[in-house]
Fold:
Amino acid sequence: MENKMVEYRKKFGLSQEKLAEKLGVSRQTIISIEKGKYDPSLPLAFEIAKTFQTTIEHVFIYAGKEGEE
Structure:
């Protein structure tokens, strides 16, 4: 899933390590989410958005399934 994690993380002055600590996940998880290789669970997505003081929709871009309009 496409996302704006790097943009928000830099805006808040957080390293991948610091963000991972705040969220209780590994740095590797943050890297994978940022690269779009891993979709976070719904609770984790909410925590990420909360950390960045915004909504899930602003952090994560859901393109939908192919064929959906």
Q: What stands out?
A: The chain has a mean pLDDT of 94. The domain at 2-55 is CATH 1.10.260.40 (434 Repressor (Amino-terminal Domain)). The chain has one domain: 2-55.
